[in-house]
Design goal:
Elements: H1 2-30, H2 35-64
């Protein structure tokens, strides 16, 4: 059961990171950025979202342990 919950949570966090990265890239293109700049912004937001999720999970693990 716990393995399934961990896999589901990982999938949801990855999906959220992909969506935020895609939106950031699209907003950058709408703003007039070049494709390379938009891709860089999308990758930065994707990495930041995953980092935030990792920090939150680590903090919750520390607080609940």
């Amino acid at each position: 059961m716990t393995v399934a919950v961990v896999l589901l949570a990982t999938a949801l966090v990855t999906l959220a990171a992909l969506l935020t990265g895609a939106v950031a890239g699209k907003l950058a293109r709408i703003d007039g950025a070049t494709y390379s700049t938009a891709l860089t912004r999308a990758a930065t937001v994707f990495a930041a979202t995953l980092t935030l999720a990792t920090v939150l999970a680590t903090t919750l693990k520390t607080l609940l342990a």
